[in-house]
Prior knowledge:
Layout: H1 3-32, H2 37-52, H3 67-93, E1 102-107, H4 113-125, E2 129-135, E3 140-145, H5 151-172, H6 175-195
Antiparallel strand pairs: 1-3, 2-3
Helix pairs in contact: 1-2, 3-5, 4-5
Amino acid sequence: MSRPELEVSRWRSVWRQLPLLIGLVALWLFLWDHVDTLTVVTGVILAIAVTRVLYLPPVLLSGRFNPWRGLLLGLRMMFDVVVASLQVAVLAVNPRWKPMNSIIAVQLLTRSDLVTTLTAEAISVVPGTVVVDIDRERGLLYLHALGTRTEADIERTRRGVLGTEERIVLAIGTHAQAVAVREAQRARRGSEKGRTP
């Protein structure tokens, strides 16, 4: 690789890590609850130190953000949290309800660490489900799901996880990931239509 190509590659790497650096500086400012020159400078120094000195798995950002898909993701997350909170509240006060829960393995469609992490966080935020383990090598999420009495309940939970992953990929994933997720969605819908009488 020639020197100009190496410099372009280095700048591209810095540009892709910029959102992570900004996020770390913002977190630092929130922790101090005070914005002045010293706090901002120490936040920038610590953000650079954390990303350069400490060993961290590389966070490969796609450099792409779809505002419309991001808005839909946020609105759907709020809807899911409200609905699940009401469902869990009803189950908690229902004296006849007997818990029937499951540990479910869900095969994700992407292998991106960032998408996997965001999917796990989004699933755990919704009451009634919590991610208990991640198999990073195989792209599996293991989650504890409340109220899974039948195979249909388990399948609905799986579809919910894959739907969350799909919305995250369409909002911030690479173009190739978005294409793969859309194809998997079409195949899933086709198989569901084939099963319905």
